[in-house]
Design goal:
The chain is mostly helical and 448 residues long. It has one domain. The chain is built from 19 helices and two strands. α1 packs antiparallel against α4. Keywords: Cell membrane, Glycosyltransferase, Membrane, Transferase, Transmembrane, Transmembrane helix.
């Protein structure tokens, strides 16, 4: 008993030390590496400042719902709590959420792995450069990952389903309000629950319970959008625009392109004039125009759509850490005094290390998903499953995120919420390799 208590004490001390190291690295980054707000991140900040000033969800004087409202709402409320709208204050919110996510991930790893392996996975999370660097970015990535991690932890928990399902509905709803594509997550939950229980009744109850709570949580925002835009917009109205920008005759990069570079028909332009705007503007009432045009192109060009999908997945998971340089340290890159050979060498070395890490995690993650997908597909139609519940959850989350990026848009920063799943997959693969290697060594040592 004494030895067990000593091991538990060492285990908890190790976790505490790793948490402190992760916290200090994140804090060091946000106070020493300068960056500026650009693109989506500038938009989030403007909306959060307007919330702080009691102007609601507005941007440049107009009500908006172009993106998920989750992050600007939380950031705006945090500004109110802090009493200021300093960018550094927003970074402190990220620091709080990032360390909280670390703690949640520790509990997940503790359920998935033996203690030594859990420590290794937790150390990866603490030291992963992406998880450190994004504390400087006022974007939805850290908040969304926090909600996703909590969702997975609740899935792995064993308490009463009467509490578990509503809690899942609540967490999935707020994750969806942060990243709208997560509204489709109940479909993943349905497959997971079916493979776990093999009961139509239990699966239907789970999905209905989760979806009902989700609907209740999302309804106030959908009602606000109905009043403001006179249209049914559950979360945001950028889905059709993003789908069109990434699926057309002129897109070859698998990512965002300036729509002014596209040649569109006069008929398509006329539809925008009827809506009181011009292409490529994208107010709420043009959402269906973009979505219909994108769907028409996809159905007419399935091979080209497949090519773009593959490019998007590659851009997201196999393009290194281009996003870390682009978004989290862009002020350094824009400083002309920085461009000495020595500084550029440092930056290239830093990028090389992160790129290698991302390539390794993505490779093991894809391998893990492909291997387990076979068991999932066969398990759907068999009386009993040939794959464990936890492997199912991790695999389907990786596949779900890949599928989203395959259809919509791909860029390195979108892999952020998938990184901890990739870490789980990598650690699980390494654990299997080491175990089989040790078994092989043991067999070699047996007397012949």
């Amino acid at each position: 008993m004494k030895k067990i208590l000593q091991l538990e004490k060492k285990y908890l001390i190790s976790i505490l030390v790793i948490t402190v190291i992760g916290l200090l690295l994140r804090y060091y980054w946000i106070i020493t590496i300068p960056n500026v707000l650009e693109s989506d991140f500038e938009g989030y900040y403007i909306i959060a400042v307007n919330i702080f000033n009691n102007l609601g969800f507005t941007q440049w004087g107009n009500p908006v719902a172009f993106q998920g409202m989750g992050y600007p709402l939380v950031l705006g409320l945090f500004f109110k709590l802090a009493g200021n709208t300093d960018v550094l204050t927003g970074k402190y919110l990220n620091l709080l959420l990032s360390v909280s996510t670390m703690v949640v991930l520790f509990f997940i790893f503790n359920k998935l792995f033996v203690k030594k392996t859990a420590i290794a996975a937790y150390l990866l999370v603490a030291l992963l450069p992406n998880y450190i660097a994004y504390n400087s970015v006022l974007g939805s990535e850290i908040l969304f990952t926090f909600f996703v991690a909590l969702t997975v932890l609740v899935q792995f928990s064993e308490f009463d389903n009467r509490l578990r399902y509503p809690l899942l509905g609540f967490l999935i709803a707020f994750a969806a309000l942060t990243k709208p594509y997560f509204i489709a997550y109940p479909a993943i939950l349905a497959v997971v629950e079916w493979l776990r229980s093999k009961s139509v009744k239990e699966t239907v109850i789970a999905v209905l319970a989760v979806s009902s709570v989700m609907a209740v949580c999302i309804a106030p925002w959908a009602y606000r959008n109905w009043i403001v835009f006179n249209a049914f917009i559950p979360i945001s109205y950028n889905g059709g625009y993003v789908l069109y920008i990434n699926n057309n005759d002129y897109n070859y990069v698998g990512g965002w392109m300036d729509p002014n570079e596209f040649q569109v028909s006069e008929e398509f332009k006329a539809k925008f004039v009827e809506k009181g705007t011009v292409f490529p503007e994208h107010p709420a009432n043009t959402e269906k125009l973009y979505k219909d045009e994108a769907k028409k192109w996809i159905f007419a060009h399935p091979i080209e759509f497949f090519k773009l999908g593959v490019i998007r997945v590659k851009n997201t998971f196999f393009n290194g850490a281009q996003d870390v340089e682009k978004w989290t340290m862009n002020e350094i890159i824009k400083d002309k005094d920085y461009f000495s050979a020595q500084n550029l060498r440092k930056l290239s070395f830093f990028r090389a290390i992160i790129d290698i890490i991302i390539y390794i995690l993505s490779s093991f993650g894809l391998f893990y998903a492909i291997v387990n997908l076979k068991h999932i597909l066969t398990g759907i139609f068999q009386r009993s499953s040939t794959i464990g519940y936890r492997e199912t959850v991790v695999t389907l989350n990786i596949i779900f995120l890949m599928a989203v990026f395959f259809v919509t848009e791909g860029q390195p920063r979108y892999n952020f919420p998938a990184l901890f799943f990739l870490i789980i997959a990598t650690v699980a693969c390494m654990e299997t390799i080491i175990r089989n290697f040790n078994v092989g060594i043991s067999f070699q040592r047996l007397p012949r």
